[in-house]
Amino acid sequence: MDKFTVLTGVAAPLEIVNVDTDMIIPKNYLKTIKRTGLGKGLFAEMRYREDGSENPDFVLNKPAYRKAQILVAGDNFGCGSSREHAPWALLDFGIRCVISTSFADIFYNNCFKNGILPIKVSPEDLDKLMDDARRGANATLTVDLERQEIRGPDGGCITFDVDPFRKHCLLNGLDDIGLTMEKAPAIDAYEEKAKAAHPWL
């Protein structure tokens, strides 16, 4: 997966609490096991009207936020069923970072495994970031994973915590397969040793 080091991008305010995975990617988009192409279904029930046209009131349809890479969202983001399609859809749309006060555990873990940085902040810090995100075209945030900082358009800075192992994986672009491949020399050495000890196998 792509490395996550420093991300500077437009932050979209999603002022909704308890955004569940069915809201993120509705069930009718779950027929595929491909990770690409799901961006069109992201928040589909809010982004589109019944006739298929765009809902101009939904934040990601507004001109300033069409290329948002950061989502500032309400409490308990990613709750509901444990569908990995939810982070796939966010990533395919272009979202690399989601900031909230809390996340559902399975969604939170799936984000890290798919190259998305989920950041937990205090309610007070979320209010500040939501204010920044409401600025439209000027709603640019910089997320620095190495320093564990979020810098706002006015120079304000918020720090965040992240598990050191997960941080290492994101900084180096390592998913589960990448982590296994890091140990390839040790695996090869073990296989050679086992072959020598048990040549009949």
From TrEMBL:
SUPFAM superfamilies: LeuD/IlvD-like (SSF52016). Pathway: Amino-acid biosynthesis; L-leucine biosynthesis; L-leucine from 3-methyl-2-oxobutanoate: step 2/4. Keywords: Amino-acid biosynthesis, Branched-chain amino acid biosynthesis, Leucine biosynthesis, Lyase. GO terms for molecular function: 3-isopropylmalate dehydratase activity. It comes from the Bacteria. InterPro entries: 3-IsopropMal_deHydase_ssu, Aconitase/3IPM_dehydase_swvl, AconitaseA/IPMdHydase_ssu_swvl, IPMI_Swivel, LeuD. Belongs to the LeuD family. LeuD type 1 subfamily. Heterodimer of LeuC and LeuD. PANTHER family: 3-ISOPROPYLMALATE DEHYDRATASE SMALL SUBUNIT, 3-ISOPROPYLMALATE DEHYDRATASE SMALL SUBUNIT 2-RELATED-RELATED. Catalyzes the isomerization between 2-isopropylmalate and 3-isopropylmalate, via the formation of 2-isopropylmaleate. This is 3-isopropylmalate dehydratase small subunit. It comes from Chelatococcus albus. The gene is leuD.
